[in-house]
Automatic annotation (TrEMBL):
Native source organism of the sequence: Microbacterium tenebrionis
Residue numbers of the full-length protein present here: 169 to 404 of 405
Domain of life according to the entry: Bacteria
GO biological process, one term: coenzyme A biosynthetic process
Region (Phosphopantothenate--cysteine ligase): 15-236
Organism placement in taxonomy: Bacteria, Bacillati, Actinomycetota, Actinomycetes, Micrococcales
Protein's name in the database: Coenzyme A biosynthesis bifunctional protein CoaBC
């Protein structure tokens, strides 16, 4: 019944959402990871499907209780582990997508080599791990996008000062070459493991095109509204 009440303003659109956090193996029992639960990305997928979109959810290490939020006949889940796997899955799905939203937290670096046996203190190597930088997945997607495709990145931000936060967001949006950058407050009350979220959406020229807070589903709705606004502006 809820789906019937949702506006079908994403009907006919193919969208790709990445969510969760990548894990970069150190050895068979250890990894470098982060605290992203995948809740905001799962809410974005669920909201898009409810509004009529065909959705691919590229899910990096999302637990079953979070993934259940995105259960919908129009959501196809593609699980991935590492940043490299996420990059491959995103390029594949983005090829036929109208909108790409990169909500996953991607490890900036990975261990230069993953040991095939569990490392021990006896080995004397656990106190230092050589790292190499991962590819910037969303910057690559933005550089390769078709003129009609919209690419959205996320940035978790712990800066409380609004001016400093926005200035950093503008630079990050330019660096990534994305259409929209969603700045996600990552303090004690917002983001990551919390049910509530507060965001600012940065668009052309670094302007704030939308902002708001609420449940992750409320925030998802606000983000899709901003995407549709941009898409309408571009087609007129
Ligand atoms: N991202 C990506 N590939 C990476 C790192 C980040 O696609 N290797 C994406 C994230 O999914 C997110 C956006 O880039 O959508 C911003 O991530 P963030 O970590 O804030 O940006 P970085 O460029 O890694 O900058 P920072 O040094 O602040 O971590
Ligand atoms: Ca980063």
């Amino acid at each position: 019944a809820l789906a019937l009440l949702a506006p079908q303003d994403l009907a006919g659109r193919a969208v790709v959402v990445s969510a969760g956090g990548t894990r970069e193996p150190i050895d068979p029992v250890r990894f470098l990871g982060n605290r992203s639960s995948g809740r905001q990305g799962a809410a974005l997928a669920a909201e898009a499907a409810a509004r009529g979109a065909q959705v691919v959810l590229v899910a990096a290490n999302i637990s079953a209780d979070v993934l259940v939020v995105a259960r919908h006949p129009q959501v196809e889940v593609r699980p991935v582990g590492t940043a490299a796997e996420l990059g491959d899955a995103m390029r594949d799905a983005a090829a036929s997508a109208d909108v790409v939203i990169m909500a996953a937290a991607v490890a900036d670096y990975r261990p230069a080599a993953a040991a095939d046996q569990k490392l021990t203190k006896e080995d004397g190597v656990l106190d230092r791990i050589d790292l190499v930088e991962n590819e910037d997945v969303v910057a690559g997607l933005a550089a390769a996008r078709r003129p009609d495709q919209i690419v959205v990145a996320f940035a978790a931000e712990t800066l409380a000062d609004p001016d400093a936060r926005r200035e950093r967001a503008r630079r990050k949006r330019d660096r990534k070459g994305v259409d929209l950058l969603v700045v996600n407050r990552a303090d004690a009350e917002h983001g990551f493991e919390n049910a509530h979220n507060a965001v600012e959406v940065v668009g052309d020229g670094g302007s704030i095109v939308a902002e708001g807070s609420g449940s992750k589903r409320d925030v998802a709705s606000l983000i899709w509204d901003a995407v549709l606004n941009l898409s309408q502006q571009r087609s007129t």
